[in-house]
Amino acid sequence: MKKSVQKIAAVFMLAIALASYPLSGAQAQCAMCSLTADSSVKNGNTQGDNLNKGILFLLAMPYAAAGLVGYLWYRKYRKKQEAEAPNPFS
Fold first, then answer.
1. Separation of alpha carbons 35 and 48, rounded Å
2. Highest mean pLDDT: which of 18-22, 46-50, 56-60, 80-84?
3. Helices (DSSP H) in the chain: which residue ranges?
4. Residues contacting 34, CB < 8 A, separation 6+
5. Could you give the CA distance from residue 7 to residue 41 in angstroms, rounded to a whole number?
6. Alpha-carbon distance 19 to 87, whole Å?
7. Residue 37 class from Cβ within 10 Å (0-12 exposed, 13-18 middle, 19+ buried)?
8. What gap in Å lies between CA 15 and CA 13, rounded to an integer?
9. Is the whole-model pTM more than 0.85?
10. How many domains does the chain divide into?
11. Please, which pLDDT band fits residue 35 given cuts at 50, 70 and 90?
C-alpha cells in the first residue's frame, strides 16, 4: 500500500514538473536588461541572447543539483530496503 502511494506521488510530481516546463522560449531578464539586449540585437550584437541563455542556465542548476541528491538518496534507501528484506528462496 505504501509503495503504491509513493508511486502515485512520484508520477504526480513528474506531471507537475512537465506541465510547468515552458514550451516556448522563456525570457529570464528584467525590463532594463531586456531593453538593452533588444537594442544591442538590433545593432547586430548577439550578447543579449547569450545573456538570456546564461540566466536560464543559472536558474536550472539548483533544480538539477536537488534532483541528483534526491536520486542518490532514493537509490541508497532502496539498497537498504533490499538488504533488510528476507530472501524467500533461501
1. 9
2. 56-60
3. 2-19, 31-42, 47-84
4. 27
5. 47
6. 41
7. buried
8. 5
9. no
10. 1
11. confident
The grid coordinates of residue 84 equal 533488510
- 17 part of a folded domain: no
As given in the structure block, the three cell numbers for residue 7 are 508511486
- How far is it, in rounded angstroms, from Cα 48 to Cα 27? 11
pLDDT over 80 (residue 90): no
Amino acid letter for position 2: K
Does a structural domain hold residue 1? Answer: no
* Residues in the chain, total: 90
- Structural domain includes residue 18: no
For residues 13 and 67, what is the distance between their CA atoms, to the nearest angstrom?
12
Q: Residue 76 falls within a domain, yes or no?
A: yes
* Structural domain containing residue 79: 27-84
Q: What does the alpha-carbon distance between residue 89 and residue 86 come to, in Å, rounded to a whole number?
A: 9
